[in-house]
Amino acid sequence: MARTDLDALTLNALTLEQRASLLSGRDFWTTKALEEAGIPSITLCDGPHGVRREAGGTDHLGLNESIPATCFPPAVAVGSSWDPEVAARIGAAVGREGRALGVAVVLGPGVNIKRSPLCGRNFEYYSEDPLLSGVLAAAHVAALQAEGPGASVKHFAANNQETERMRVSADVDERTLREIYFPAFERVVTQARPATVMCSYNRVNGVHASQNRWLLTDVLRREWGFTGVVVSDWGAVQDRVAALAAGLDLEMPGTGGASDRRIVDAVRAGELDEAAVNASVRRVVALTRRHSGVSGAFDADAHHALARELAAECAVLLKNDDGTLPLSAETRIAVIGEFAATPRFQGGGSSHINATRVDAALDAIGAHASDVAYAQGFTLDGSGDARELREAAAEIAASADVAVVFAGLGEREESEGFDRETIDLPAVQVELIRAVAAAARRTVVVLSNGGVVSLEGWHDDVDAVLEGWLLGQAGGSAVADLLFGVVNPSGRLAESIPVRLQDTPSYLNFPGEAGHVRYGEGVMVGYRYYETVELPVRYPFGHGLSYTTFATDGLTVTRTGDDRATVTVRVTNTGDRAGKHVVQVYVSTTAGPVRRPARELRAFAKVSLAPGESRLVTLHLDRRAFAYYDVRPGRWVVAPGDYTIQIGENASSVVAETTISLGGDTVVPVVSLDSTLGEWLSHPIAGPALLRVLTGGQSARPEENGENGLRMASSMPMGRFLSFAGIDIPHATLRELVALGGSDGPAT
Asked: Are 715 and 676 in contact (CB under 8 A)?
């Protein structure tokens, strides 16, 4: 067995050139070996939802052929499962396949927040909500790493678009980073301990993520305790020496030795601390403890069956008027749309898997029913006569009991590398849906898309809509299982479906201009925005239907401290089919000095119930469920006050709620002469003392005119107020007031 630990003696025995060589790739996918030191080369490869181990040519855009592997449902689908077990089972299977293919690190999962539905890479991300994203990703990482290979949670941080992704500066305030864009990473790092974290291409507040010391060292390592390897996204390093000093350990892919020479030269010139090189070398060598040789094999048939089972957990039944679904075996069915025969089941780009096999929905539907007709309806490449295709589809729809239209987006409309310009379906598909709906007795639309698409212009014309997202290689069979009720739909939306693109919170700031994208919506991302401004959406975050019904009652909330609580609720399956229900717990509050969203998801659980079965579900709300990030002291704060615990059918519909009061944190703000008069007067210690000085020791409460004057001046910094008002406070008294305010700053 190769020796992969690196004690001080071995480290000192390596030359600076040897140590530097370990900090960049040998080629596109492998690291360098130092056989004389017992340090092996390891292989990293793409694929959050499958293993993309390339056999020949190498690239990072999924253009070249790779070894066949199972394409499981991508993150866009897994997010809508709301089920950590689904994420874990995919992670474990990917880990087994990675081990069988000799992969040490699988690059994924991606946990970037869906800030805009236009992001071309949204299919690789879970949700618009950081809690849902973090819980699912942590489950995926823990299960994958239990099989041997390491994970690489990505892309750290604020990487929420493809436009100018290599250089755009994401300009985000710290509270927004901490509350929206960091928590999923933080949860994965602290709970699942990934082998690596991948830095993003973009800049964050002007500094490239690859050389952002605050991100990679202060937050990731010192605050969250990350001990693994920080690896670059492929080609993300702008300045190798600055990146190493900031905390980036491994640059990928290899640069033919150029980066190694820069590191050596910088150390010898005194521009780079050699200790930083040694620290990164230790971490990279520790990474080589991960399995790097082929071990065992995977059962392709069993994994395909698993992919089918899990895909059915991820689709969301958006609409089902008059019990249109499920279909019966005797139903005369018209299957329409090219996607039924040529499935769109994964995204384009670096995560593109060479699937072991692919199930087409048309074949799977034919296995459930005997009377099935098919019409292409449209072509994916735009060839053919659109009118003739549409008319032929309407003709077979008219003679069927139900028409099932497969619509969605192809890789020409969405892929890694570019953002979408619209959320509309292609016009030819909208026209097809409307023509079929006009001709058919009943119409069902099945969607295949990696990012949200608009349902406007056709939604009200159809009877049922199944949002299938991208379901992986067995998605066609999974869709058929759902359409015929073999599996009861249980997915819930992990992102809101807006009425208009213009309604989305990032609309005016996406994708930015002049090299910057301003995150002007702050923490009001997704449903947080829609619910706060009371803006209707077509379907809200958390929405999803079932073939059975559920009732929720018996909500009780018990305080378990000044900053935490336990929630218990009873869920009953009131229908006649077994099904799964997602309990969604939201917290709503106005406590504290910052603007809070109308409600925020703070806990969830997916429960399986037989017909008539009831179950008590208990969920714990920890400190962070009630906290906001206070940028002044730089910490999480639970403000004293009232908090309403809500059980949501979705983010828009609250079915039960109760309010509790929390003692929260005792926070005494620090004030100085730069603080406003209003901040001084509201200070519990310095405020009364200041009033006594201003009123000459008289009543602490000024007369009405004086009080109004103080209110008018409340926004003025204290130093300027004293100067402007001509108030001469003795220097010693001023120092005493500043000291009471907790500041050690200057008193003049």
From this structure: yes
Q: Report pLDDT for 2.
A: 44
Sequence-distant (≥ 6) Cβ neighbours of residue 364 within 8 angstroms: 476, 477, 479, 480, 481
**One-letter amino acid for residue 46 of the chain:** D
Q: What is the pLDDT of residues 21-30, one digit of tens each?
A: 999 999 999 9
Written as one string, the DSSP assignment of 301-317 is HHHHHHHHHHHTTT-EE
* Distances from the Cα of 567 to the Cα of 454, 498, 554, 564, 660, angstroms: 36, 30, 10, 10, 11
Residue indicated by tokens 């994994």: 303
pLDDT at 701: 54
- Taking the chain, what is the end-to-end CA distance rounded to the nearest angstrom? 68
Residues with catalytic annotation?
233
Mean pLDDT calculated for residue range 130-136: 98
Quick: pLDDT tens for 716-725: 998 888 888 8
**Rounded distance between C-alpha atoms, residue 581 and residue 585, angstroms:** 13
**Segment 683-690 mean pLDDT:** 89
Hey, how many other C-beta atoms are within 10 angstroms of the C-beta on 4?
17
What whole-number distance in Å separates Cα of residue 185 and Cα of residue 511?
A: 23
Q: Which range is least confidently modeled, 64-73, 320-329, 482-491, 567-576?
A: 64-73
Tens digits of per-residue pLDDT, 611-645? 999 999 999 999 999 999 999 889 999 999 999 99
Give the amino acid at 127. Answer: S
Helices 686-694 and 731-740 meet at what angle, rounded to 10? 150
Quick one: how far is CA 235 from the chain centroid?
23
Give the number of other CB atoms < 10 A from CB of residue 655: 16
The predicted-structure confidence for 218-241, as pLDDT tens digits, reads as follows 999 999 999 999 999 999 999 999
- Spatial neighbors of 539 by CB under 8 A, at least 6 apart, are 318, 455, 493, 496, 497
Tell me the backbone φ, ψ of residue 266, rounded to 5 degrees.
-65, -40
High-pLDDT (> 70) share of the chain, %: 95
Q: Secondary structure of 153-193 in the HEC alphabet?
A: EEEECCCCCCCCCCCCEEECCHHHHHHHHCHHHHHHHHHHC
- For residue 107, the Cα-to-chain-centroid distance in whole angstroms is 15
Q: For position 345, what pLDDT does the model report?
A: 96
Q: Token match 């659980």: residue?
A: 605
The pLDDT mean for the chain works out to 94
pLDDT at 359 over 50: yes
Task: Calculate the dihedral angle through the C-alpha atoms of 601, 607, 610, 616, rounding to the nearest 10 degrees.
Answer: -80
What are the φ/ψ torsions at residue 109 (nearest 5 degrees)? -85, 165
- Say how far apart CA 478 and CA 71 lie, in whole Å: 14
- Angstrom distances, CA of residue 726 to CA of 49, 614, 690, 718: 68, 71, 15, 12
From the list 93, 87, 2, 11, the residue with the least C-alpha distance to 42 is 2
- If you ran DSSP here, which 8-state letter would residue 106 be given? E
Alpha helices in 202-292 (DSSP H): 213, 240-246, 258-268, 274-287
Q: Can you list the positions of beta strands (E) in 493-541? A: 516-518
- Collect all residues with Cβ–Cβ distance below 8 Å to 348 and sequence separation of at least 6: 62, 411, 414, 415, 416, 417
Residues 485, 487, 489: CA angle, nearest 5 degrees: 90
pLDDT confidence band for 1 (50 / 70 / 90)? very low
At 738 the three-state DSSP class reads helix
Query: Which residue's structure tokens are 């001990």?
Result: 227
Rounded alpha-carbon distances, angstroms, from residue 720 to 669, 671, 676, 685, 710: 20, 14, 9, 21, 13
The CA dihedral of 195, 201, 202, 208, to the nearest 10 degrees, is 80
Phi (first) and psi of residue 516, to 5 degrees: -135, 145
Backbone φ, ψ for residue 35 (5° rounding):
-60, -35
Work out the number of other CB atoms within 10 angstroms of the CB of residue 195. 25
